[in-house]
């Protein structure tokens, strides 16, 4: 993905009332973000006629993104590199098994991070089945997400964790007369 700049103009009014006296303040401004080059490259290998493996590497240099507001430029995010690994096994013409592993990187790091600059990562494990019959296809996928990190402050530790499970289904029909 090539570099891109996004500019946002905003205007809002803040109102409050205290002891019967109403105050309002109008705030307006503009901010701009410049996102760097980023991209993915991968390799798919057919080991046998019914077994395929794939590896993909994603470059996310978000630490080079510039955020400009009020004449001040900052680099608010962390860079990351993500590895995706997967396999597909199709023992029959109508049946496919799929599985994979991936990390998802956030754009922030934990407070008190002993490894400065490392973003928070989420582990993703997935598995699925694919069924096909004539022009119909049905894909069912289960994904398990697990993120865990600790914010270490001077006088407190916040233990952050989340585990999520997702089940998705996709139904497709191929319009063969459009070929």
Please provide a written account of the structure.
The protein is about 0% helix and about 70% strand. By secondary structure, the chain is an all-beta fold. A 7-stranded antiparallel sheet has the order 3-4-7-8-9-10-11, with no helix packed on it. It has a 4-stranded antiparallel sheet with strand order 1-2-5-6, with no helix packed on it. The mean pLDDT is about 90.
Ordered list of secondary-structure elements with their pairings:
Blueprint: E1 4-18, E2 21-35, E3 39-48, E4 51-60, E5 66-69, E6 72-74, E7 80-92, E8 95-105, E9 121-133, E10 136-152, E11 157-173
Antiparallel strand pairs: 1-2, 2-5, 3-4, 4-7, 5-6, 7-8, 8-9, 9-10, 10-11
If you compute it from the alpha carbons, what radius of gyration comes out, rounded to the nearest whole angstrom?
24 Å
Number of E strands: 11
Strand content: over 45%
- Estimate percent helicity: under 10%
Individual helix count? 0
Biggest pleated sheet? 7 strands, antiparallel
SSE-based structural type: mainly beta
What is the overall pLDDT average? 91
What features would you highlight for this structure?
four-stranded antiparallel beta sheet; mainly beta; seven-stranded antiparallel beta sheet; about 180 residues; about 0% helix
Quick rundown:
With 179 residues, this protein is mainly beta. It contains no helices and eleven strands. The two termini are 30 Å apart.
């Amino acid at each position: 993905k090539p570099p891109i700049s996004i500019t946002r103009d905003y205007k809002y009014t803040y109102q409050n009332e205290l002891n019967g006296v109403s105050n309002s303040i109008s705030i307006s401004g503009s901010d701009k973000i410049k996102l760097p080059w980023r991209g993915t490259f991968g390799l798919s290998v057919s080991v046998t006629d019914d077994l395929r493996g794939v590896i993909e590497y994603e470059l996310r240099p978000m630490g080079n993104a510039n955020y400009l507001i009020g004449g001040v430029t900052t680099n608010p995010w962390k860079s990351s590199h993500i590895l995706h690994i997967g396999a597909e096994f199709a023992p029959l013409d109508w049946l496919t098994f799929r599985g994979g592993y991936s990390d998802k990187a956030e754009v922030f790091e934990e407070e008190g991070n002993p490894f400065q600059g490392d973003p928070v990562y989420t582990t993703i494990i997935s598995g699925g089945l694919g069924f096909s019959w004539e022009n119909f296809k049905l894909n069912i996928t289960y994904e398990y997400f697990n993120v865990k990190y600790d914010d270490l402050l001077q006088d407190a530790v916040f233990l952050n964790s989340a585990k999520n499970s997702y089940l998705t289904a996709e139904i497709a029909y191929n319009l063969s007369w459009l070929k």
